[in-house]
Amino acid sequence: MSELSHKDSKFVDGPMQSKSPIDSALRFRQLTEGRRLHACVIASVWILVQAARVSAADVNAVQVSVVDSPDGHAFMVSHCYHCHDDSTSEGGLNLQDLKVRLDDTVNLAKWAKIYDRIVSGEMPPDDQERPDPKEVAAFTKLTAAALQSTWRERYATRGRVDGRRLNPVEYENTLRDLLAAPWLQLKEMLPPDPEAHGFDNIAEAQEISYVQLARYLEAAEVAIDGAMRLRPAPEPTTTRTWFSEEGRYLGKDWKERLGSLDNRPEWTWFWQQPNSAQAPRRIRNTSQQIAGWYRIRVRCRAALWDKGQLLPPSEGQVAWVNTAAKRVLAKFDVPERADGGVVEFNAWLHENELLEFFYATADDRQVSKKTKIKNDAELLRRAHQEFMEDYRGHGIAVDWFEIEGPFARESCERELRQQPWPSESYARLFGDLPIKPWTKASGLRPPEPLNLPDLTANKHGLRETFQLPPDMVMVVSDKPVEDAEKLLRIFMRRAYRRTPEESEVQRCLAFAVAAIHENACFQDAMRLAYKAVLCSPDFLYLQERPGKLDGPALASRLSYLLWRSMPDRELMQSAESGLLLTDEGLKRQFVRLLNDPKSQRFISDFIGQWLDLRKIHDTSPDRFLFPEYFCDNHLVDSGVSETEATFAEMLRENLPAKSLVAADFVVVNERLAELYGIDEVKGKDIRRVELPPDSPYGGLLTQSSVMKVTANGLTTSPVLRGVWVMDRILGTPPAPPPPGAGSIEPDTRGATTVRELLAKHSRSETCAACHASIDPPGFALESFDVMGKWRDHYRSLGAGEDVNLVVALRPVQYKRGLPVDASGVTKDGYEFNDIHQFRKFLVAQDEQLARNLTERFLTFATGAGVTFVDRTVVENILSTNKEQGYPIRLLLQHVVLSETFRSK
């Protein structure tokens, strides 16, 4: 690729003759597609070769000698082989052929499990002859030494972390920051990475192929073209849409009743969603429909309708403004004054984007049947009037929706409109070069059309178009080759997160130079070079070499931990000066990055994966057992916000590890406070609320989001919740169920409790051993329903007492079932009666809580799982923080300061 020039016959066929600008554009597009394919092939080959390149020493399997290894040790022969040799292989484990091998991480992990089970006394099992304690100590000491030595040798030759690629979240964040384009939506265009060790940024699980690289290339094209958006700076305009102006919400006979829309009412009232929570009200977007920043205003009000009388609302009402692609632009509390109020916010809008108004706190089934069965407009209106005469419930009203823009910057300040469009992202690509309309007289080929993302479903990739834009403009450079090199060097330094080598610059520059000599517009030439940069392994991969990380590599590791994106200028300056390589310099940058608003990316991503919150929408509670939660997106969204805000509060205040399961506060809004039985909390905003000592809430364990992701899709499941607590909170995941173990289906008819079903299931000795550990944490959480509300009885769709309750204008179908029993006995004999006592059991294990969290931090921060040799690092961190109760922020800080974090 470095030898590519404008004379390369692969891309240049001599001066191109076109009969029209369209033909010329199509011809040049064919050439640039060829360059794009060439760049993609070369980059993919480079990456695949690098992934396969292993030194001769790595290829040869290194085996620890028998003298210094547990391989074939007398202890194994005497106590293990009779159950785990090549003829029996009980549990699928053949220890006779198991060797300590440097090149086999799977076997090394097996040896670590063998070590753990022998040390804990789990193996040999109780029904076998117990070995002499001295014999056990000698063998485990030998095994530990062999594993430590083997892992250290592997780290020294290969590093701890394999080549790590940016995952879709990191890729999107990086391009947003690189191009100053926070509106970019790219991660849905990329194939998701598989999880390993609980996270999706683990190097050993990542793959790369030509197909994947092609998807990254598509995303790069959307990003570059989205940042360019070349057009003359538009004059911001203001357009206003009245919700009632089309008569859509006035009834089918509005013309007969009103005569003209000039007689329309001031307010358009919404008492319910039209069909479902997934069908909000459409907004007529009559703005310029040009991609950019817009200031949006909504005049609205909330009220309580009481049989024809409007009263102040007793509950706060929340509305969202979405795009048709379900991108949320704003969430806000609806003003409650009698004359309403104006809500204002700024948002980025793509071209021709549809907008929707979503009444988030309305139950979408609040529709009278008698108002839906009439086809005659007059009868329908009368039926609705009769319904409303007896109706009492909350609603909101909207008068108008106003859009002002587009603006060049998020601040939406008018004085910035004379800057190049859009200003900041344009400057990242073209500096201060001017733009002007393209004409044939320029001697340049017509500008290429820009790739647009498919706004209706980004995962389907690009919506290609060969139509030229109506106002063709071009970036003007008097010295295009010189400017191309200057701009490219600046761009590559930021994109590569280091100073690029000269050969790297020339390799990418060659694409731009070739296009410039073919009379391409300057922006089209630079697009080729920029896209080559964004498909390079130097951009897609974190550049790390075995041993201690250099300054730029350490800066990237820190920023991709705490910001999930590239380093900023200050962090790179600290890296290049060498200050970041010192304890004090690294600590200073850790504090700065964690205190920055961008650290919310770390909190959302880490919490979402650690606690499984990414699966929050995977299941929904049974609509008949739990009708109050039907399509309650506001509650689900609030629950995720609560968990993220709670963890952020724990980090900010440096709370001890025990606060993960036992805190004296919650971070809630009005909807969550209602769910938890907390009074005097108003509005949609999440805020800290202190809890009384007898509250069953506090910490992550009983939060609404956690209770939802650990439900089974219909109702609660002690098994799922028990496994989740053991794995995610304690870090002691149970073994997978054996083949044929079966599943526990809850009896929604109410004849038996899930505890009784589990008792029958656990009669098998194989099942009983695991359920002795799994079930107790799940039983302790049975007092919380599928969304985290406290309950004393189960709900039943069969047996039980009738419940005189109406939800969404309908009598509930469930009955009051059997009482909840939240008692249990842990495997080591601790008895508890409820969540309060079980929480004390967890608090007493604060060291294990801290150990699990530290291991999660270390895994997420480095992109590699915790191995046997890493255990020493974790234990040293715990020892350092023991007297202070394992403060969460300090645990993370000590992970960052560890040699493991600062080394490949």
Q: If you had to describe this structure to a student in words, what would you say it looks like?
A:
With 904 residues, the protein is α+β, with helices and mostly antiparallel strands. It is 39% helix and 12% strand. Strands 1, 2, 4, 5, 8 and 10 form a 6-stranded antiparallel β-sheet that branches. A 4-stranded antiparallel β-sheet has the order 3-9-6-7, with no helix packed on it. It has a 3-stranded antiparallel β-sheet with strand order 17-21-18, with no helix packed on it. Strand 4 and strand 5 (309-311) form a beta hairpin. Helix 12 packs antiparallel against helix 13 (522-534), helix 18 (599-610) crosses helix 19 (633-653) and helix 26 (846-862) crosses helix 27 (871-881). The radius of gyration is 32 Å and the shape is flat. The two termini are 29 Å apart.
What can be said about this structure in brief?
By secondary structure, the chain is α+β, with helices and mostly antiparallel strands. Helices cover about 40% and strands about 10% of the residues.
What structural class results from the helix and strand content?
Answer: alpha+beta
Rg from alpha-carbon coordinates? 32 Å
Distance between the termini: 29 Å
**Helix content estimate:** 25-40%
Shape: flat
Q: Which ranges are low-confidence, i.e. pLDDT below 50, for 5 or more consecutive residues?
A: 1-31, 39-67, 454-468
Largest sheet: 6 strands, antiparallel
> If helices are DSSP runs of H or I spanning 4 or more residues, what is the number of helices?
28
Mean pLDDT equals: 83
Number of strands: 23
Beta-sheet strand percentage?
Answer: 5-15%
